[in-house]
Amino acid sequence: MIDLEQLARAQQAIVEAGRQLYAAGQVPATGGNFSVRLDGSHMAVTASGRHKGRLSVADIMVTDFATRPLGSSLKPSDEARLHGQLYEDLSLAGAVLHTHSKSATLLSRVERSDTLWLSGYELQKALEGVASHDARVAVPIFDNTQDIAALADAVRQRLDEQACCAYLIRGHGLYTWARDMNACLRHVEALDFLFDCELELRRGLS
Ligand SMILES: CSC[C@@H](O)[C@@H](O)C(=O)COP(=O)(O)O
Ligand SMILES: [Zn+2]
């Protein structure tokens, strides 16, 4: 049984996150999708095609981690399975945000390898599990695809090998997760700042 008060809190947190992220230029057009874990097999997730800066609670539905809707006729986000996979594999993940910022889109194309490494930045300590500017923070990069089930499998395999709190999809955007929505919003803000720094550094070096 879904706890309805918990669901209402999750819906409100997602609506508010959408407003903030849209105002910050993170989810232009209808890009992006958001979710909050409800229990060991369900999540509150954005319905597909919604403008993320103008969400209402009615745009946030419940599905299981395999993306089957619970009590809703809405269509879940096209990328809902990427959220479900993270909740299945990472018991500490309480919220997942997917954004489409210009920096994430550009940097994931400029970096041709399968990993963006971040190091030497004080702000990387805003990421859960990172305690020093000296740490080497891995952000895996996956090639973009419309085959979301295959992408979820590839993410699962990679996370098995490499601890991280975010990944990029090339030419597409960022996925990040954290224990709750506030920490996840902090991840988006910090990562985007770090992506900007990397882009400027690389511009200076070329
Ligand atoms: C505006 S196209 C972007 C979509 O293809 C997708 O990448 C996206 O982030 C939003 O899809 P959605 O189904 O609304 O969750
Ligand atoms: Zn997307």
Automatic annotation (TrEMBL):
Positions with a binding annotation for Zn(2+): H98, H100
Gene3D superfamilies: Class II aldolase/adducin N-terminal domain
Record keyword Lyase present: yes
Manner of cofactor binding, per the entry note: Binds 1 zinc ion per subunit.
GO cellular component: cytoplasm
SUPFAM superfamilies documented for this protein: AraD/HMP-PK domain-like
Domain Class II aldolase/adducin N-terminal as annotated: residue spans: 12-199
GO molecular function terms listed in the Swiss-Prot or TrEMBL record: methylthioribulose 1-phosphate dehydratase activity; zinc ion binding
Keywords of the record: Amino-acid biosynthesis, Lyase, Metal-binding, Methionine biosynthesis, Zinc
Catalysed reactions listed for this entry: 5-(methylsulfanyl)-D-ribulose 1-phosphate = 5-methylsulfanyl-2,3-dioxopentyl phosphate + H2O
EC number: 4.2.1.109
InterPro entries, alphabetized: Aldolase_II/adducin_N, Aldolase_II/adducin_N_sf, MethylthioRu-1-P_deHdtase_MtnB
GO term, biological process aspect, one: L-methionine salvage from methylthioadenosine
Cofactor(s) needed: Zn(2+)
Pathway the protein takes part in: Amino-acid biosynthesis; L-methionine biosynthesis via salvage pathway; L-methionine from S-methyl-5-thio-alpha-D-ribose 1-phosphate: step 2/6
Pfam entry (one): Aldolase_II
Described function: Catalyzes the dehydration of methylthioribulose-1-phosphate (MTRu-1-P) into 2,3-diketo-5-methylthiopentyl-1-phosphate (DK-MTP-1-P).
PANTHER family: METHYLTHIORIBULOSE-1-PHOSPHATE DEHYDRATASE (PTHR10640)
Family: Belongs to the aldolase class II family. MtnB subfamily.
Protein name: Methylthioribulose-1-phosphate dehydratase
Organism: Modicisalibacter muralis
Lineage, highest ranks first: Bacteria, Pseudomonadati, Pseudomonadota, Gammaproteobacteria, Oceanospirillales
Originating gene: mtnB
